[in-house]
């Protein structure tokens, strides 16, 4: 088994934090995104999309999406539970994870990939596609981000963690999203005290440095 990783990319970080919370160690191989190693023939044979992370299993099968990789490890290492134990816990965590991905992470991606010079003609993270940047999507992303952080701040007004009493995959996803958004110059405003409190506590967990 091997995890193809990239130290500063958000999706691999989500897996590393998850594994750290589980106390699971997996051999890793770093892929250098800055030099384009993810677009080389060698890596494209592992993941034809040229994206990270990718988990190569002992039998040679490869899982290529961070959430799927985390689901895999939850199934074989169920404790501590990060996707929930009861039906309502599972539903809450899934609901908030999808909202964070669809509203927050997508907003940051829209802004970064449609403004960053490094993503010229690569506005979609797929090695097989050449897609021009669309400035209007960056503007939409900025509006989405404001609504996202406001909603998350309201959610955290009367609870320690996003989906319930315990730290979960939803919190991991939100932490990675908020930290990644800095690359797109998107931030949490000072007046959102609940969200800033939560971010400080999530960032203080040992797993956050994984």
UniProtKB/TrEMBL annotation:
Location of the GST C-terminal domain: 86-210
Xref: PROSITE patterns: GST_CTER, GST_NTER
Domain GST N-terminal positions: 1-81
Protein name: Glutathione S-transferase N-terminal domain-containing protein
């Amino acid at each position: 088994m091997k995890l193809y990783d990239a130290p500063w990319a958000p999706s691999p970080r989500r897996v590393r934090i998850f594994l750290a919370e589980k106390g699971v160690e997996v051999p890793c191989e770093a892929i250098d995104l800055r030099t384009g190693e993810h677009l080389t023939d060698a890596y494209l044979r592992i993941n034809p999309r040229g994206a990270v992370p990718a988990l190569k299993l002992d039998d040679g099968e490869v899982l290529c999406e961070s959430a799927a990789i985390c689901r895999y490890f939850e199934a074989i290492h169920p404790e501590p539970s990060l996707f929930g134990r009861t039906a309502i816990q599972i539903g809450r965590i899934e609901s908030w994870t999808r909202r964070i991905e669809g509203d927050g992470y997508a907003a940051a991606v829209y802004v970064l990939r449609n403004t960053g010079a490094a993503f010229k003609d690569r506005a979609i993270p797929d090695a097989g596609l050449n897609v021009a940047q669309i400035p209007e999507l960056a503007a939409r992303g900025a509006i989405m981000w404001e609504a996202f952080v406001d909603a998350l701040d309201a959610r955290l007004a009367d609870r320690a963690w996003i989906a319930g009493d315990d730290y979960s995959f939803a919190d991991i996803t939100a932490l990675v999203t908020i930290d990644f958004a800095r690359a797109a110059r998107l931030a949490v405003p000072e007046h959102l005290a609940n969200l800033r409190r939560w971010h400080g506590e999530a960032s203080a967990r040992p797993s956050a440095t994984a």
